[in-house]
Amino acid sequence: MLEGIGAQTITAIAATVITGEVTPLDCYVGLGYSTDGAVELSQPIGVLGCEYDIENVRLFFDHLSSPADGSDYPGMNHAGVKILLPTDIATAYAGVSFEFGSHLVDMDNPLGILGAETNGDVRLYVEHVNSVFSPNEGITHGGVKFIF
User: Fold this and answer.
1) Is residue 67 reached through a cis peptide bond, with omega within 30 degrees of 0 on the bond before it?
2) 34 forms bridges with which residues in the sheet?
3) Which residues of the chain have pLDDT under 50?
């Protein structure tokens, strides 16, 4: 059931947590579900990444893959910028990113992003990622992230 969790996954999670603890970056690991779409991942999906906020602008790197499937290497990797619209309990955002390095992703660059997440060290989130030039290519995913 968890054949996708091996030495590489454990190392990536440990590196993400350590990076979040020893640098000014907010790094996260999480678990969620996604819609069928332009990324071929088994459910549930794992998410990890790092982000850095400069006022209402967030620079980020994000990785999606499946802990249930060991054949989805290298998952989905994308990096970019988001404009934040914070409130007291949640933050909405819109942005753009570029996907790199995956045969599992059927979206053309650049990617547009819309999403929202609760505030705090444990965040519930939902996000839609879509090709800017091919609007029918996209994926919606959501779940929980633990921030380090």
Assistant:
1) no
2) 141
3) none
pLDDT tens string 70-108:
778 888 999 999 999 999 999 999 999 999 988 888 888
Please check whether residue 99 is in contact with residue 111, taking contact to mean a CB–CB distance below 8 angstroms: yes
Q: Is the backbone of residue 86 left (phi > 0), alpha (psi -120 to 50) or beta?
A: beta
Give CA torsion, residues 77, 83, 88, 89, to 10 deg: -30
Inter-residue contact 116 to 126 (CB < 8 Å): yes
Within its chain, how far is the Cα of 128 from the centroid? 10
| Confidence at residue 96, expressed as pLDDT on a 0 to 100 scale | 98
Contact 43, 4 (CB under 8 A): no
Peptide bond into 44 cis (omega under 30): yes
- pTM for the full predicted model: 0.91
Strand 90-99 to strand 138-147: parallel, antiparallel, or no bridges (unpaired)? unpaired
d(CA 97, CA 100): 10
Sequence ranges of the domains in the chain: 7-147
**According to the CATH classification, is domain 7-147 in 3.30.70?**
no
In residues, how long is the chain? 148
